[in-house]
Amino acid sequence: MFKRSRKKNIIKPTSPTNYPYGTCIETEAGWFLIRERGRFRIPTKRVLESWRFNVVPSSESAVKHVKISGKMGFRDGSLIKNVANGQIYLISRNKRMHITNPDIFDRYGFDWNSVILVSSDETNLHDDGEVLD
Length: 133
What we know:
By secondary structure, the protein is of the alpha/beta class.
């Protein structure tokens, strides 16, 4: 005899819901992080994956009362490479630090395999920081 797998029925709230600070939700409009000043859009799956959030299913009707206050960038400590120009950055204090010397990877123990390939738009989610050389 075989075992039936049970899929958990996920019920998305449709009435106004006040999610706790730090909750990451997914609605039909995308991913958002709930903060004290509202909800912040997570613009791409690559940005979302850098944070490693546990994503809670929700609906726009449940959070329409929560103002969209901005966009999230990559998590501090993320290494990103802009595929348009080949430049590699370390995200630190929400700024992109341009890595101009490959010895930086050895100096700080960075892993080349952890570099995330990103678009120019994703790179521009962060302001310029200092140069690492």
